[in-house]
Amino acid sequence: MWLRSCQTSTVTLRGFRCPHSKPAAVTRCCSTVQGDVRVRFAPSPTGFLHLGGLRTALYNYIFAKKYAGSFILRLEDTDQSRLVPGAAASIEDMLEWAGIPPDESPRRGGPVGPYLQSQRLDLYSQTAQQLLKTGHAYYCFCSPQRLELLKKEALRNGETPKYDNRCRHLRAEQVEEKLAFRVPHVIRFRLESGIEPFQDLIFGWNRHEVAQVEGDPVVIKADGFPTYHLANIVDDHYMKISHVLRGSEWLISTSKHLLMYRALGWQPPTFGHLPLLINKDGSKLSKRQGDIFIHSFQSDGFLPEALLDITTNCGSGFNTNRMGRRIDELISEFNPSKITTHSALIDLEKLPEFNRIHLQQSIEDEQQCRLLIGELQEQIQQVYATELEDEEVLHEDYIRRVLHLRKGHIFSMKELLSPAYAYLWVRPSFSSQQVAALTAEAQHIASLVLKLIEERGEELAVDRLSKDLKTLVKQTKATKYSEVMKLLRLALSGLQVPEDVMLYLSEFIIIFSCNNPKTLGC
C-alpha cells in the first residue's frame, strides 16, 4: 500500500541506532503516499486543548487533506480519575473553531465508532484475552504496596524503577486459584528481546530494546480499563489508521507497541514522530502557563488562522516559510520530507503581528468581512448597550468602512471595542476648557469644517482631505495646522492623545461619511 523512496540524512539521536549506518546517524524515509490515508488525533480529555495539541492535530489534518484522506478525532478517556468536566466537548469545539474539523469524531460519528475509548471496553478486553491465550500476556497479582517497595528499592540503589516480572513465572494452577478467590489483578504484556528496527517518517531508523530497560507493562488495569499502550494499538487497528503522527515523546514507546502488533498478528501503521513545540527560551510548553489553551487565545480575540500560521511558521514540513498562510496554502505547501527532528521554538510575542496580517486578509475578503461585521455588531451592543445613541453605527456599511480604514493598523478586533476607539460607537464628550486650551477660534474652525464636508460630500478621501485642511488653516487668524488637527481629534473622539495625522483624517472620514456632524458644534 505504501511506496517509499528513501534519502539519507545525518541527525543526532540519543539512544537510537540505525542498523545500517554509523552510530548517531539515521536513514530517513520520505514517503510517497498511496492508498487510503487515515490519521487520527487522540487527546485525553484530562484537560483542555492547548497549543501543542493543536499543532499535532493540525499536522494530522494537513496530512489527511494533502493525500485526500480522513482525519479522525478519538478521545482517550480511559483514565477516569483525571477526566475534566467539559473537556471532551471543548476539544472538538476548538478544532472546529480553528478550521480543522474532524471527518469522524464522537460528535460527528463515523463507520468505525464509537470514538470514545470508554465505550470500547469490550474490544480491549477481547484483545487482552487473545494475548493471554497465546501466552503474550499474563495475570499479575502484585499489590500496590509491593510495587511501591520495588520502586523505593530501585531508587535507593540509584536504578530506574521497573517491575521485576515476578508474576510471569506463576504456574497455571496458581493463577487459577487466585482468580477463583477474586484476588485483585491486572494484565501485563510479556516483553520480548530482539525487537526489530522500524523506520520513522521523521526520525529514520529506530530501535529501543524495551525488555532490557523496562518491566512488563500493564495493558488492563485493575478497574478493567486499558492502558494507553493497549488501547491505542487496538483502536488504530480497528479504525484502520494508516499513519500515526504524534509527538516525539512517544518515540521510545513505539518499539513496545510494535511488539504488541507482532503478538496480535496485525500490520502496524506507518509512524511519524513530530518534534516538540517549545517556548522560545527552550523550555517545554506547560499547561501551567495558562495562556497556551486555545480557548484563551479565542477569548483574547486572536483569529484561528493566526494560530495555525504561527504554529507552522516556527516549525518545518513546508516548501516555503512565510507569514500569512491560510489553511489551503498550508495544505498545498506541505511536504512531509521537510519535517526536521529539531524542536520548534514558538515566540508568542509575535502572535499579535500574525493576527494583524490575518485580520487584514479577512477584512479584504468579502465573505470573511461579513462574518467580522456580524461579530462586531454583537460585541458593540454588548459593550456599549446603554450608551448607544445612533443606530447608524451598527449598520453594515459603516462597520465595513471602519474595518477597511483601520485594517493593517489594528492587531485584533477587540481593539475596536477598547476605550481608545469608543468614539466610533458612542458620542464623545469633552469640555469647553479642553477646547479653549487648543484655540480661541473653535467656533470659526467648526463652521469652516462643516462647510468643507458639505462641499465635498461623498468625495471625502484621506489624500484630498489633508490638502483641504491645510487650505482651511489659512482662513484662521492664529491657529496652526497641528492645533486644528488636535481640535478635530478632540471633537471627533474626545481624546487628546497624540496620534499620527493620517489617523485623524481616517477618523474624520469614518465619522462623517455616515453620521451627521453634530459633534463639531464646539
From TrEMBL:
According to its UniProt entry, one GO biological process term is: glutamyl-tRNA aminoacylation
**Keywords of the record:** Aminoacyl-tRNA synthetase, ATP-binding, Ligase, Nucleotide-binding, Protein biosynthesis
In which compartments does the protein localize?
A: Mitochondrion
Query: Which GO CC terms are listed, alphabetically?
Result: mitochondrion
Aminoacyl-tRNA synthetase class I anticodon-binding domain: which residues?
384-497
What's one Pfam family here?
tRNA-synt_1c
Name the Enzyme Commission number(s) assigned to this protein.
Answer: 6.1.1.17, 6.1.1.24
Domain (Glutamyl/glutaminyl-tRNA synthetase class Ib catalytic): residue spans on this chain:
37-351
Xref: InterPro entries: aa-tRNA-synth_I_cd-bd (IPR045462), aa-tRNA-synth_I_CS (IPR001412), aa_tRNA-synth_I_cd-bd_sf (IPR008925), Glu-tRNA-ligase_bac/mito (IPR004527), Glu/Gln-tRNA-synth (IPR000924), Glu/Gln-tRNA-synth_Ib_cat-dom (IPR020058), GluQ/Sye (IPR049940), GluRS_core (IPR033910)
Query: What family is reported?
Result: Belongs to the class-I aminoacyl-tRNA synthetase family. Glutamate--tRNA ligase type 1 subfamily.
Name of the molecule in the record: Nondiscriminating glutamyl-tRNA synthetase EARS2, mitochondrial
Q: What is the native source organism of this protein?
A: Mastacembelus armatus (zig-zag eel)
| Upper classification of the organism | Eukaryota, Metazoa, Chordata, Craniata, Vertebrata
